[in-house]
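Let's practice the habit of predicting before peeking. Look at the sequence and jot down your guess about where helices and strands might fall. Then scroll down.
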Amino acid sequence: MHSDQESIRKSIKSYWMIGAALFVFTGITVAVNQVHLAVPMAITVALIIATMKGSMVASIFMHLSHEKKWIYGSLILTVIGFTILMLVPGLTIGDSIGTPIHVEAPAAAHTGH
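Done guessing? Here is the structure:
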């Protein structure tokens, strides 16, 4: 990023715009809270609003929009890690480690002889 006057004005303008958008989304958050949605819908709406606000803060105020290579790399690592963490329990459901082995009793034990 250059330090000339035009780029500084552009940066300040984007900060104000994102600040205003965050203010609007905070108002939306308060308004949605007054609607009293069902719990699953309320969680979904809250996560959507939080994701939008968080991405605006991260991309503009934390200057992550200029670090695309690092962001995509960490995002890919996160997806790979999440996939591994979800697959491991799924792959271990079918194993028999730790389950007792049931041995059938001899036939003579059942007849009472």
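How did you do? The helical segments are 5-35, 39-61, 68-92, 107-111.
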